[in-house]
Amino acid sequence: MEDKFGQQSKLDFENLLDETSHTLRSTFVSRHKRFDALQKLHWGAHVRERLDLAGQIKDFIFEEKLWIQSKVCSAVCVIVEGIPDENKTKHLNLAV
Fold it and tell me: Could you name the domain of life of the organism this protein comes from (predicted)?
C-alpha cells in the first residue's frame, strides 16, 4: 500500500511539475514573441522616421536646386539683355 501511495505521489508530483514547466515555457515563449513584435514595431518606426526625414531632405535639396537654377537663369537673362544683339552669339558661344 505504501509503495502504491509512493508511486502515486511521485506520479502526481511529476505531472504537476510537467504542467508548471509547460505553463512557464509557454508563457515565456508568448511574452518573448510579443517582445520581438514590439521591437520590430519600434525599429520599424525608426526606419520610417529616417525614411521620412530622408524624403524631406531630398525635397529640400530639390527645391534649393530649382531656386538656384532660377537665380542663375535670371542672372544669365540680365547679362544677355545687356549684350548687343549682334554680339550675343559670339559671347555666349551659341550657334544660331
Answer: Eukaryota
